[in-house]
């Protein structure tokens, strides 16, 4: 049979380059390549839900052995024992379906290494006891048996029963009758590109890949490349090109990727506008009267860049000109939690993970709020989450464990914080100290249980305990609670002639990182960024306000894989569900913003702030 050269084949394809619309892939689109090399053949791929499992076979002494080379054959490693018999047991357990989920399909690809003339009759003989499982023409729920490797010529396909089909090649010309026996079309990736799976191929190579896949689709056949890299970036790129099978040697990794894919992609179709700073006081060596510290809990550079892309290439944060880096390690670990990371900022020294405002000697330290109170500054602490959680707590409490929520709430009684806004009413209203609320009222605090009630207050100390529903995730309808809380807190504290300090926490960027949900991360980052805009806008109006934006740590080990800022589309991957030791950025705007450039320990943030007030 005459075959086209690769180049003449592509010339023909230029006339028909439209790729058919493709359904999104899933883990059942995985092809377990060289599956017999797994430490548990068949079962690792099967329990990962692969839709295609490949076994190379040799005929030796009348038996079909699975191996890549003859010298690799091991006693007992037969197609029958490792694949057909266990697969049949599973098929029966599943009520005559390949998988318990009847929507999942399965094909067993038999790659004949040599001598198909003798291997195929031996294979058909071995398949006889399993006819109900493999007779695809009569049973749509059957396991498809696909022959690859050393195959008969297409004109000889008709000589074999219809229970087997064949793995086609793109440069082979098939008649309509022969094409009926082709289950899929496959080829080696390097025939079209030198791309190694990292980044993207050249446009010329990308066009080749799309054309060969499109040609298979025009024939009504799924397409697979073999010899591809096993990485999320490779899988994403191949899916974009239109492949139907993802070749993999890591079936569990592929399954996890596709199960979480909806949480690893996010598109924001409409960008929100950002505030244009005036920069009039930015970087000037003049008096700092007020400081607004915004902490994006768990916010690293990847989270910021993901937010920038999803907002179509713009953020309020990235409008700022001065930036540095904060090193976040705890005293007792290279990897900090919010308690130690926040405490380092709030008290100016490293401490142990889980410690709230305590030194490594288990003794209380004076925090930034109490220190600045001695200079006459009023203060506010705001969170888009639980106000007794670690990051806000370090600015008013002193406990040896961040989980002591009721004790943290009770510590507020001895704090110099003037306005506290966040959720977790229970720790205050049902505190073991039944008189906590009355004591706080005696200290001058007015209790509000809603944001609307808080916004009616025009002076005095405020304890704003919101219901948990008020701090639900933005993606679930929270609204602009954080920005509104900051605006009203600024309004109340601006009456103090000596100035104010406000810490505002975007708490749930961290929550999204912990559950590895990119939409959660980005929507919270955007909410935080809109709050940044309110701080910068006030700084421009006031002229004596320094705005600082940083994080206590990074959460999730976020990696960005694919993006299109014009579409607001971002795809990523997480390396952990915990915090990481990655440095976090510090952005500064207003007088003395240049003091925060460079790379330094997170404890320096406390010291730099303090120097601004001791020098005035």
Automatic annotation (TrEMBL):
Listed GO MF terms: alkaline phosphatase activity; metal ion binding; phosphoric diester hydrolase activity
Binding site for Zn(2+): 297, 391, 510, 514, 552-553
GO biological process: lipid metabolic process
Residue positions of the active site: 338 (phosphoserine intermediate)
Name of the featured protein: Alkaline phosphatase
Entry note: cofactor: Binds 2 Zn(2+) ions.
Coiled coil region boundaries: none
């Amino acid at each position: 049979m005459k075959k086209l050269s690769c180049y003449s084949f592509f010339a023909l394809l230029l006339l028909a380059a439209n790729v058919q619309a493709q359904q999104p892939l899933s883990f059942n689109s995985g092809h377990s390549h060289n599956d017999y090399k797994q430490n548990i053949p068949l079962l690792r791929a099967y329990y990962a839900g692969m839709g295609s499992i490949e076994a190379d076979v040799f005929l030796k002494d009348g038996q079909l052995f699975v191996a890549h080379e003859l010298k690799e054959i091991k006693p007992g490693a037969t197609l029958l024992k490792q694949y057909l018999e266990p697969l049949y047991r599973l098929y029966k357990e599943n009520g005559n379906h390949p998988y318990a989920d009847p929507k999942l399909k399965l094909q067993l690809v038999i790659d004949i290494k040599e001598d198909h003339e003798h291997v195929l009759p031996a294979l058909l003989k071995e398949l006889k006891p399993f006819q109900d499982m493999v007779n695809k023409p009569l049973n749509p729920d059957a396991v498809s048996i696909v022959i690859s490797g050393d195959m008969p010529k297409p004109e000889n396909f008709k000589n074999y029963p219809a229970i087997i089909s064949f793995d086609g090649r793109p440069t082979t010309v098939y008649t309509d009758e022969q094409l009926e026996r082709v289950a899929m079309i496959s080829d080696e990736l390097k025939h079209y590109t030198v791309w190694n799976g990292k980044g993207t191929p050249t446009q010329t190579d990308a066009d080749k890949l799309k054309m060969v896949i499109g040609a298979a689709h025009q024939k009504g056949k799924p397409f697979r490349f073999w010899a591809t890299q096993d990485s999320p970036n490779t899988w994403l790129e191949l899916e974009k090109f239109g492949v139907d099978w993802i070749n993999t040697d890591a079936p569990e990794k592929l399954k996890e990727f596709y199960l979480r894919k909806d949480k690893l992609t996010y598109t924001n179709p409409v960008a929100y506008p950002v505030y244009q700073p005036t920069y009039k006081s930015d970087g000037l060596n003049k008096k700092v009267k007020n400081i607004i510290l915004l902490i994006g809990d768990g916010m690293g550079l990847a989270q910021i860049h993901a937010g920038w892309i999803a907002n179509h290439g713009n953020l309020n944060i990235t409008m700022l000109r001065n930036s540095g880096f904060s090193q976040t390690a705890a005293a007792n670990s290279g990897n900090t939690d919010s308690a130690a990371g926040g405490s380092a900022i709030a008290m100016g020294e490293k401490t142990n993970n889980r410690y709230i405002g305590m030194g490594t000697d288990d003794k209380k330290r004076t925090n930034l709020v109490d220190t600045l109170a001695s200079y006459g500054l009023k203060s506010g602490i705001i969170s888009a989450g639980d106000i007794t959680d670690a990051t806000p707590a370090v600015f008013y409490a002193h406990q040896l464990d961040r989980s002591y929520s009721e004790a943290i709430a009770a510590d507020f009684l001895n704090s110099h914080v003037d306005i506290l806004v966040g959720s977790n009413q229970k720790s205050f209203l049902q505190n073991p100290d039944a008189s906590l609320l009355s004591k706080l009222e005696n200290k001058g605090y007015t209790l509000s249980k809603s944001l609307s009630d808080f916004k009616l207050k025009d002076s005095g100390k405020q304890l704003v305990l919101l219901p948990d529903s008020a701090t639900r995730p933005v993606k679930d309808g929270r609204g602009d609670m954080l920005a509104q809380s900051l605006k009203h807190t600024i309004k109340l504290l601006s009456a103090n002639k000596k100035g104010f300090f406000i810490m505002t926490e975007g708490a749930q960027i961290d929550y999204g990182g912990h559950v590895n949900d990119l939409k959660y991360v980005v929507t919270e980052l955007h909410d935080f960024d809109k709050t940044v805009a309110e701080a910068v806008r006030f700084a421009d109006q006031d002229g004596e306000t320094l705005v600082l934006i940083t994080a206590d740590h990074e959460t999730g080990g976020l990696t960005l894989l694919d993006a299109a800022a014009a579409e607001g589309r971002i795809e990523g991957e997480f390396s952990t569900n915990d915090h990481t030791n990655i440095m976090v950025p510090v952005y500064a705007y207003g007088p003395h913003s240049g003091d925060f450039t460079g790379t330094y320990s997170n404890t320096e943030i406390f010291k730099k702030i303090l120097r601004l007030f001791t020098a005035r």
